[in-house]
Amino acid sequence: MNPLLSWLLVNIARKKLEDRNARKTISKKEIVPVVRNLQVELTHAIKKYIFISIGVFSAGFGLKGFLLPNHFIDGGATGISLLLENITTLKLSLLLIIVNLPFILLASKTINLKFAIRSIVAIGFLAIVVHFIDYPIITEDKLLIAVFGGFFLGFGIGMSMRGGSVIDGTEVLAIFLSRKLSLTIGDVLLIINIIIFSFGAYILSVETALYAILTYLVAAKTVDFVVDGVEEYVGVTIISEEHEALRIMITEKLRRACTIYVGKGGFGESKNGYDKSIIYIVVTRLEIAKLKTEVDKIDKKAFMIMGVVKDIKGGMIKRKPLNH
Fold this sequence. Notes:
By secondary structure, the chain is α+β, with helices and mostly antiparallel strands. Helix content is 65%, strand content 9%.
């Protein structure tokens, strides 16, 4: 055989083998992220539905162990359902679905379809729990009913929200109306609940409506604790000439990570361009006092800006408490 032909055939064969191996490598590279993404999706989905399940059982306990046997009401869609349960022959389990259904349909357009589906599952599960599980009646004391009924209901709503769903759909309506009107979500929720409590005072009694307001306040505060966390995080921005000493103190003494970015003074003329190093750190509210003390030791004139941080992920936030 001609040597040149042999060389060409060998190189063609080698090229085909390299292409085949390259395709295999690309396929493996493409498959690995897909598998990893599926694992993450599955893990997050399981976690979400665990949160929703805990929330549903807690809300069911608040409703059947406290509010429902004593003819109490709450705010939101749950309050509307409890109010209708008191004046109609329909079961609360059915009313929870009927009242929340328009809000969930609105959620599919206002938020997204996945959120709406999870919410339908959560509300349906709550209806089943309320209908079939016989919770013990804990107390007949009205104050305890209002406080602890609101607590367990709020805990349930908050856990469901942590799971990416709602079991009380009025917040969806509040989001929708806040976009259409010049009102905040809180304003819309306040208006909705004033209407509910007014009907409660008219249909049931003023005393029941007053206890309902207490129940709602306890539930709302509990939701805040569950969703935002008991330990509120604070983002602190520090501007100081002693930025290097502050950085060393934060990272070595307080054992915290911090972010440093450059800035430029706005007062007067800055001839050196970006002449300021700005430190940013996230701590809990309980740790603010210790941080202030350590900063004052280095620079009493340091400019500090603090703002509440709603949520955090990753980083070195709680490696070691600052007050140790």
